[in-house]
Amino acid sequence: MKLIPVYKWTKGVRAFNQRNKRLMEQPWASGVLLLACVIVAMLLANLPFTKELYHNFLETSLAMSIQSPIDPETGVRAIDWVFPKDMTVEKFINDILMVIFFFTVGLEIKREVVCGELSSVKKAMLPVIAAAGGMAMPAIIYALFNHGTAAVSGWGIPTATDIAFAVGIMSILGDKVPISLKIFLTALAIADDLGAILVVAIFYGGNINFGLLLIALILIVLLVLMGHVGEKRPAFYLIPAVAVWFLFYYSGIHSTMSGVVMAFLIPMKPRFSHAYFQRRSDQYERRIIEYAKIKDEEGFPNGPQRHCLRRIRDISNQTMGLSYRLEHFLSPWVNFLIMPIFAIANAGVEITDLSYFNIFQYSPEIGSVSMGVFFGLLLGKPVGITLASFIAIKAKVGEMPSNSSWKMLFAVACLGGIGFTMSIFVDTLSFGELAPELTHHLRSLGKIAVLTGSLSAGVLGCLLICMFAKKTEK
After folding, report:
1. Residue 188 lies in a domain
2. CATH number of the structural domain spanning residue 76
3. For 395-435, where are the alpha helices, taking DSSP H only?
4. I need a surface site. Which of 71, 73, 77, 425 has the fewest CB within 10 A?
């Protein structure tokens, strides 16, 4: 057998890692992976030899318990401690892993509000108003189909936009979409995420334990004060974040909201100033030159030089704000691990008959989740976004994106109908007040409608963009 030289093997590994890094940096990569995970989830949930294993795995308990023997006289246990209560694999994904997703979304929203597309009233007005219209119209359409029925509480499902899919599709379309409209849809999706977060926090929580909520608020206030006095070390924010999650989890407010709250508390201002960084890096660079005189068999860098390089690296990190560092670190994990896991766990709908795909089914008792979600995403989103934008521009509280037209704005608004991640997440929180079998049935209908509605909105948006772009070129 011919052995591969070590240098060739390491060179191949580096090349493979570089290709993976370039692939992960593509804006469409996470969307393609999510789509693949949806297909895998549907197969796992419906193939005869995997569906039972799939559902049993998601229902596996992850709670830790400490129990003492049953007292023969009283018939009860002296110690019966379970933590966290009712924790399963599915709840772990939705209530813990998704906290990291919402934390990253919160960091992105904060960055845009502080120094991005939502940083000024002039910049923010159009995408914020458009996002509001893009949430209100789908909710109205859903309510029209389900008013007075058991399914009415699912009105929040079609109100969200999936930024990963929308931005990914725009990147594939290239220069067919004006840059101004790409910025507009990105800012709109971020504002939409904030709106979806508020919807989940206000309308999809449980019975509130005000005592635990008060403790959480006191802890949050202390963190705010700590930020004002200039504390910027990660441990002083991330350790309390676990306590805030715990308090939110048991207070009745959905635990994922703790991620958003903590994201807004993470400081953006760096620990070290530019002048300090320049002074200290210059000092260590001079030392590196001086230490080159030390004879060392290791060559460059020798021991003292390695210490200087590590110090330059540490100072460089501290010259970037903690918020930026966390967002940069977490984004790949969220896009390529947490969201795919969420998709596999939540997009697997067992199709017992083809009626799940009949979007026109309606019942006077339970309404039509399918029609409400499907038409809310396909029609409600683009109509709401375009109508709200028209009102904002005519009222002179917003400006039309440069080098764009109303036709192209409507076409781009169709991409706002790609709900997916947030829509499926809201679906998992809806209908909880109903009987378990009916809840499961309505959530399954909602997930199928989210998938078909998002796919239809994406295809419609792409077709209209290509059609209007060709007309513009002529």
Report:
1. yes
2. 1.20.1530.10
3. 406-415, 421-429
4. 73
